[in-house]
Amino acid sequence: MASNGEVQEAAVRVIGGWACPYAIRVFAALKLKAVDYEFLQEPAGRKSELLLRTNPVYKKIPVLLHRGAPICESMIIIQYIDQVWASNGPAILPAQPYARAMERFWAQYVDDKIAPALLVLRGLTDGDKDNAAAQVSNALQHLEEAFVKCSQGKHYFGGDNIGFLDLVLGSHLGWFKAVEKIAGIKILDEAKYPEITAWADRFCAHHAVKDVMPETERLVEFSVNSAVKTKPSN
């Protein structure tokens, strides 16, 4: 408690949305590092004064507030978490420079190719849904091959532990399942992507992920009830 009787703010707070994949990856990163945080749900359909004040450039979620100092953009936030809480468990980013560069490359690929296509398939942005589905399929084929190289026979892109690329791709898995119901298509096809499908099951069952990954039916309901088209966060 603060000296004046008011409740003191948590040292770590996250402005985000429970259904936002970019926020989900931040929540999971904090849980991986065993960092306690306060979740500040951004109001649906409008931007809060706190968001506008802490991210005046992009005006998007998520925003990490660390002792009041704002850090924006989900990938930057994850790297910040990895550096600030370096001693809390395994590293999120690889120590080896080439491996680190490869995970960053594929992480950006995920957000450039898969994220926009999912928005089309959800009906939140205009576009041809067949083309969007093909784009996701092509991206997953590349990521299937990338998994074999990055994981080196282990459970995650990061090896023995969840790493940077796991968090970035994994944050979209809830929407993969929701889009399968919304659009009536199969995204995680075990016959096409056996490695990614098995990885997805392991990722979602991980203790740092299972409590922050929304249920499929809740995401479907959220998507159906979204009356206003919104731009993606990042």
From TrEMBL:
One Pfam family linked to the record: GST_N
Q: What SUPFAM superfamilies does this protein's entry cite?
A: GST C-terminal domain-like (SSF47616), Thioredoxin-like (SSF52833)
Keyword Ligase in the entry? The reply is: no
Alphabetized, the UniProt keywords read: Transferase
> EC number(s) of the enzyme?
2.5.1.18
Q: Catalysed reaction(s)?
A: RX + glutathione = an S-substituted glutathione + a halide anion + H(+)
Could you tell me the Gene Ontology terms of the biological process aspect for this record? glutathione metabolic process; toxin catabolic process
Give one GO molecular function term: glutathione transferase activity
Please give an example of a GO cellular component term from this record. cytoplasm
For the keyword Transferase, the answer is: yes
Please state every residue range assigned to the domain named GST C-terminal: 96-222
GST N-terminal domain location, by residue? 10-89
Origin, by domain of life? Eukaryota
Family label: Belongs to the GST superfamily. Tau family.
Which protein are we looking at? glutathione transferase
Supply the source organism for this entry: Digitaria exilis
